[in-house]
Amino acid sequence: MWSSSVTVLLLLICWHGCAGHPLVICFQEQSYDDVTVHGEECLVHQDCDGDNLRCVNQRCTDAAAQTAKSLQDVAIQTSQSLEKPHVEGSPAKAPPVPKTRDAETNTDTAAATKRVQISTKRAAKECERCRKFGDPCVEEGVECPEVPYTVCRMGQCHCREGYYHKEGRCMAELGEYVHDGQYCEPGTQFSNRRCTCRNDQFYDNNMRTCLKSALGINTSCTQQSQCSPYGAAYCPSVSPKRCTCHPYARYDEATELCVAKDGYEAYCERDGDCALANARCSTEKTCVCKPSYYYVNERCKAANGGECETAADCAFEEAVCQSPSVQSEDESVEPAEPKRCSCGKGHYYQSSGNRCLKEAEQYGDECSPLLGELGQCIEDQCQCDENEHHFKDGKCNMKIALDARCSKTSECFVDGDDQDNVECRNSACQCKFDYSPDVERQKCIRPSGKNSSDRPSALKVITLLLTSAAVLITGSALRDAYYG
User: Which sequence ranges form a coiled-coil region, renumbered to this chain (predicted)?
Assistant: First the structure.
């Protein structure tokens, strides 16, 4: 039952705009007393009374009964002569009632109104011109009409999960369903109604593009998957980004693949996965020697102080395996403590090189370099390079001149026998107190008649002050007596 009030609504038709357009919708507004129920005619969803009713094909239909999605047809009316709105005092006019709602044109001679139904089942490109990504929408959580793979969120058309916006349409990520290949990214393939990569390509991390494999080990890459054809290889996250074997793998030239290692540096998840004795699982998932052990001759051998059974268990030459409480190397003596690796008598353990060196008894003795990092073996003797270094405090030290920056006194150097008269003070090489540098500033000498700082001594200063005070007091007393 149509009410007597008439509402004229102009629609925005696709891409032309509504201004001056000959096509309009002319329909009578239903009164609140008239309701439309299931099966009755309707124009929009709001005409149907009921939470689950939707206007489908101009009939109120239960939405739950719809098992397949389809684009709804929109009824567009055209009018050759619009009726004037009802004026108070004039007789109400009966509303024009269309005889049919088919796609054919029907004319009511009383109202001279023409109703035309236009199907909106257009091609994909044509539909995109009707509505697009970001346009306003009404039904929250429902796909926006004529915009595939969208959803209405907060009054706007957005792409569904698994799809992304590009150039006005919602493109499908790799592996997502699409009805047409134009919704797949260029460079991918449309197969079985899904966007996929070719068999010789790999999925990018963003799941939108396909990547070609790298050309081999040590060639350029951008993603991990590009290096996977070459065995246990990966693409580093920092430059230079080239396919590289994992730490637990080695490159096999015969197969041109990265193959897993056995024993030392083999792949592991925990310490128990390492078959090598005295090994542990590192943070890089590789088997390495435990602390205080070195990998020597395919074994993890003990460093200085590590437990051992024989000297062969020690990781350095000239080593002995004995109990610390036993000084004799006689193995028949029962040790009171576990045996440990150490250097033999007369040798010194060098941790930086993991070796035993013969100890030097005095400077110049024939030995291996034991005079610190700057010591050199010159003609089979431990010596310092006198051009750049000097011997002091039992070590070879850099020669640092007066007033130059220093870190310790043994670095400061002056010519002659005045080595004890210089020190490192305030991070600079300076002469000790009571000494002053000579003209060439390479000797510290004791000046005659003054201290090393060329300043009067404290005693002289006090004496001078007392003398001056006495003179002032005496002069003041004489002046008072003379003028008094």
Answer: none
Mean pLDDT of the chain: 72
436 and 408 in a single domain? The answer is yes
Residues 6 and 112 in one domain: yes
The answer to whether the beta carbons of residues 248 and 261 sit under 8 Å apart is yes
**Is 254 among the domain residues?**
no
Instruction: State the pLDDT at residue 287.
Output: 94
Domain match, 3 and 108 both: yes
Task: Report, in this order, helix, strand and coil percent for the chain, each rounded to 5.
Answer: 15, 30, 60
Q: List, in sequence order, every residue forming a beta bridge with 157; answer none if it has no partner.
A: 152
pLDDT band (50, 70, 90) for residue 126: very low
Q: State which amino acid sits at residue 114.
A: K
100 with 130, same domain: the answer is no
Q: Please name the residues in contact with 338: beta carbons below 8 A apart, sequence gap of 6 or more.
A: 307, 323
Same domain for 74 and 187: no
Residue 245 lies in a domain: no
Q: Residue 88 contacts by C-beta under 8 Å, 6 or more apart in sequence?
A: none
If we measure between CA atoms, which residue out of 297, 324, 303 comes closest to residue 315?
Answer: 303
Instruction: Write down which residue in 105, 121, 137 finishes a domain.
Output: 121
My answer on whether 92 and 187 are in the same domain is no
Has residue 267 been placed in a domain? no
The answer to whether position 391 is within a domain reads no
Rounded Cα distance, 317 and 137, in Å: 82
Question: Torsion over CA of 206, 207, 211 and 214, rounded to 10 degrees?
Answer: 70
Checking if the pLDDT of 118 tops 70, the result is no
Residue 388, class by beta-carbon neighbours within 10 Å (0-12 exposed, 13-18 middle, 19+ buried)?
exposed
- Residues 339-385: tens digit of each pLDDT: 899 988 878 787 777 788 777 666 655 555 556 677 777 766 677 87
Q: Which residues contact 434 (CB under 8 A, 6 or more apart)?
A: 446, 451, 452
User: 221 and 235 in contact (C-beta within 8 Å)?
Assistant: yes
Number of domains in the chain: 3
For residue 291, cis peptide bond before it (omega within 30 degrees of 0): no
Band (28; pLDDT cuts 50, 70, 90): very low
Domain limit, last residue, from 121, 147, 168: 121
Instruction: Concatenate the DSSP letters of all residues of 220-284 into one string.
Output: B-SSGGGGGGGBSEE--SSSS-B-EE-TTEEEETTTTEEEE--STT-B-SSGGG--STTEEE-TT
Beta strands, E only, 143-248: 150-153, 156-159, 163-166, 169-172, 189-191, 194-196, 201-203, 210-212, 233-234, 244-245
pTM: 0.35
In contact, 450 and 433? CB cutoff 8 Å: no
- Tokens 């043994």 locate to 410
Q: Which helix (H) or strand (E) holds 477?
A: helix 458-483
Q: How far apart are CA 178 and CA 443, in angstroms?
A: 90
User: Range of 110's domain?
Assistant: 1-121
Domain co-membership, 152 together with 44:
no
d(CA 298, CA 464): 82
